[in-house]
C-alpha cells in the first residue's frame, strides 16, 4: 500500500468575496507541483458561493465535471440547452467532450450555496457532450457506500462519466465499520471526509481531509464519529 495524506489546512485557498474556494489540487492561482492530480482525479474544489452570485458562462472541453452540493441551490445552464437546479442529495455529471459552455450561480439571494466541483480526465477525447443528474436520499447512503458515479451510469443507479472511475457516498454512524473493495486493483482511491472523523486502513482523517491510496485491493473503514464520506476510485 502507498498513501498520500492531504490535511484540510494544507489545501490551497482563494477568497474572492463572492466565492470562497479550497483546492485539494493545483487550481487557478494555487500551484503545488506535488499536488497536481491523483491519477485521473484532476480537481477537487470545496466551493462556497454567496447569495445571488456565480460563475458566468465559460467553456470546457475534454473533461468529466462532477458537482455535489452539500447545502443551498445551485442553478446550472449550459449550451446543450439544460437548465437545472442541483441541491443537497443531487449529483451532477457533465461530459464536456468536444466543448460546452456553462454557467452556475446561487439561485438564492439570502443564503450561500456550498458544493464540491470535481474534474476527472476522460478515457475518450472529443466525445459528444452529455449531461446527467440524479438525486440520492440520505437513507440510500445510510451506513453503506452508495455508488453515485460510474462508467455505466444508470445500470449502477449512478450518473455516468467517460472514465473507469466510481464515486461512492456514505453517511456513516459512529462506530460503523465497512470494507470497500476496489473495482480494479490497478486503480487508486482518493477518500475525502465531508463531515466527521473516519479511520481508513489505520489512518485517522478529520473533516475535509483527503487520503489517496494506491497498490491495494480494499479499504477498511471505521467511522469514529457520525460522518459523511466520499470515495473516488480512479485509474492511476
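-> sequence recovered:
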Amino acid at each position: 500500500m502507498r498513501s498520500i495524506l492531504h490535511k484540510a489546512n494544507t489545501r490551497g485557498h482563494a477568497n474572492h468575496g463572492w466565492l470562497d474556494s479550497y483546492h485539494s489540487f493545483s487550481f487557478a492561482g494555487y500551484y503545488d507541483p506535488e499536488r497536481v492530480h491523483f491519477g485521473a482525479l484532476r480537481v477537487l474544489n470545496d466551493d462556497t458561493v454567496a447569495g445571488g452570485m456565480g460563475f458566468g458562462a465559460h467553456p470546457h472541453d475534454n473533461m468529466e465535471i462532477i458537482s455535489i452540493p452539500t447545502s443551498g441551490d445551485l442553478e446550472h445552464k449550459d449550451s446543450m440547452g439544460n437548465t437545472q437546479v442541483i441541491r443537497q442529495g443531487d449529483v451532477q455529471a457533465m461530459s464536456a467532450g468536444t466543448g460546452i459552455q456553462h454557467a452556475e450561480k446561487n439561485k438564492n439571494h439570502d443564503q450561500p450555496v456550498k458544493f464540491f466541483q470535481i474534474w476527472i480526465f476522460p478515457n475518450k477525447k472529443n466525445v459528444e457532450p452529455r449531461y446527467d443528474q440524479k438525486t440520492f436520499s440520505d437513507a440510500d447512503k445510510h451506513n453503506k457506500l452508495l455508488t453515485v458515479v460510474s462508467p455505466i451510469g444508470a445500470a449502477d443507479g449512478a450518473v455516468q462519466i467517460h472514465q473507469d472511475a466510481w464515486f461512492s457516498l456514505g453517511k456513516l454512524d459512529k462506530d460503523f465499520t465497512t470494507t470497500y473493495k476496489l473495482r480494479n486493483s490497478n486503480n487508486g482511491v482518493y477518500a475525502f471526509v465531508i463531515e466527521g472523523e473516519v479511520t481508513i486502513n489505520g489512518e485517522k482523517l478529520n473533516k475535509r481531509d483527503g487520503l489517496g491510496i494506491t497498490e491495494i485491493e480494499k479499504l477498511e473503514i471505521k467511522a469514529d464519529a457520525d460522518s459523511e464520506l466520499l470515495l473516488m476510485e480512479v485509474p492511476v
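The CA atoms of residues 70 and 88 lie 5 Å apart.
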